[in-house]
Task: structure prediction
Amino acid sequence: MNSTILFQGYAGFGADALVFPAIEGSAPQTGNAAVDEWASDLYASGEFSGKSLETALLYKPAGLEAKRVLLIGLGKGDTVNSAVLRRVAGAALRTLKAKSILKIGFVLAKEFQQAAYAQALLEGAVAADFEPDEHKSKKDAKHAESFTILAEGGSSDLAEAARNGAVIGEAQNFTRALVNEPGNLLTPTVLAARAKAMAEENGLDVDILDEDRMRQLGMGSLLAVAQGSAEPPAMIVLHYKPADAKPGTHLGLIGKGVTFDTGGISIKPSESMEKMKYDMAGGAAVIGAMMAIAKLQPKVEVTAVIPTVENMPGSRAVRPGDIVTSLAGKTIEVLNTDAEGRLILIDAITYAKRLGVTLMIDAATLTGAITVALGAVNVGLFSNDGGWQQQVLDSSKEVGEKMWPMPMDDEYKELLKNAFADMPNIGSRGAGSITAALFLKEWVEDTPWVHLDIAGTAWIDEAKPFLAKGPTGVGMRTFIEVARRLAN
Ligand code: BES
Ligand code: ZN
Ligand code: ZN
Result:
């Protein structure tokens, strides 16, 4: 899809449809008599009131080159923000392409001409065009041809913002395409190769640690998870450092990259096990964020570490009761082989610290328990540092990724006692997402850190008006925003 912004009026723009966003309760004044009369009749009839994501389509309006007009509701005027416009652009695009209306103009009136809005519109439109049908011979849905913002009289900073929005939307779709790949086609080796190709295309440094190097270093925790699979593991390291990087700040992004999670010897039930292909969604979000960061060039050093393995049962698999030694030297009794994410993440966290990161964020589809707590609405956010937590929360809000802070009181550590090793890999009872986060924290130590449990939010079983069903790419936009804010 071609996505862009033009600083021209809408009347002469030959689209299949022009989209006009409309505030709840007051009919839009577009300046076109036919459209304005239709809109005010619609509002008066009560058939359309401008509620969030409500739509109405008008055919062949007089005085316009465009073939149709779509009104789409913004909701109440005082609630309009970037997150609202991101969804509105997405819902407009998905509504229209479902009717094979593929050449779209979005009218951005003077009152909405802000850089952040132009960015959000193209993020939303590009992400909305993604479909998870890569492997279907006959595609379910069409793709839009073009999405053009029409911002008559707008200033030139809107153009840069719009370009950035397209970059971020495309990075989100890159992330989602990775997450959508099944375990047979996206093994740890393939994930590493895709990350490497992306890095080389975008001028990032890349280092892929193979099994031998990880053994020499002593990543016993990660290797224990990997040993049950015929597929070799990898540690993917991507590095971005612009010449003018802000001194003293080095962001570390860490993402769980389990390409398929059977549970191992503590095997999962067969129902819905196929979804465990998305157990690398945290890693994919980190790789996608690095792609956007390489293109947007914020003035801050960023290192990404993605531990990637396949979790399989088998004659060589790690057993319940096995004791393993992590890169940091601490020992772990593996009580449940299905709690594998934390075992690979801790070796990545230690490695990232050795590479000199000063601030860390990890994203992981870590626990089913986070879905019990927060459903598919909020990411569970855990942190050891109030200031850093707030920075990440502020960024997530700006980019429309909902996150909710979770507690990490010391009392919960009682649940992580073990007689045979320094730590067990699971808690004794209750608070499963918190004990998982507390386990990671033992390896993070004093570095300011945020952990995002995205198990409930990285995949949606039902499409939303603005997003196809399947992988969401959650976390990626927050990572990018955090990097941009650190640079300023
Ligand atoms: N990958 C799963 C978590 C998960 C569950 C992600 C559902 C997405 C949807 C993780 O490795 C896991 O299996 N965690 C266990 C931990 C338990 C053994 C303490 C879980 O949540 O059941
Ligand atoms: Zn698991
Ligand atoms: Zn897992």
Q: What stands out?
A: DSSP finds 13 helices and 20 strands in the chain. The chain has two domains: 2-170, 186-487. Residues 78 and 453 are 31 Å apart (CA to CA).
